[in-house]
Amino acid sequence: MNAFALFCLVAVIGSVQPAAAQVTLDLSKVTCDQWAGYKITNPQNIAFWLSGYQHGRRAETLVDTQGLAASTQKLRDFCLINPQIPVMDAAQKLFVTDK
């Protein structure tokens, strides 16, 4: 094998990235304990998703970033008292209003 072919082979093998594992999560099954206890991911990550989910259900496009922080703290406080409730149910109970 000539030097150029060897170089190309090494370059191709060296540039291959290992595949990252894809993790999916069914949020309807995540409990408050799992969410507030950092057992899955940083709770803020899921709080962002929950906010988007609730806003999407109401077709609202505005997000109050200050309100999101306050809502996340309110949800965390509720979840610490009610650890077995699914976090989506807790969010719905606390933040969904009939309009």
What do you see in this structure?
It contains five helices and no strands. The chain has 99 residues and is mostly helical. The protein has a domain at 32-99. Helix 4 (65-81) crosses helix 5.
Which helices and strands occur, and which strands form pairs?
Layout: H1 3-15, H2 32-36, H3 43-57, H4 65-81, H5 87-95
Termini separation comes to 73 Å
Count every helix, treating DSSP H or I runs of 4 or more residues as helices. 5
Report the helical percentage.
Answer: 55-70%
General shape: extended
- What kind of assembly state do the chains in view correspond to? single chain
How is the biggest beta sheet arranged?
Answer: none
Count of extended strands: 0
What sequence of helices (H) and strands (E) makes up the elements?
HHHHH
Poorly predicted ranges (pLDDT <50, ≥5 residues)? none
Identify the notable features of this structure and list them briefly.
single chain, 99 residues, mainly alpha, extended
Q: Summary?
A:
This protein has 5 helices and no strands. The chain has 99 residues and is mostly helical. It has a domain at 32-99.
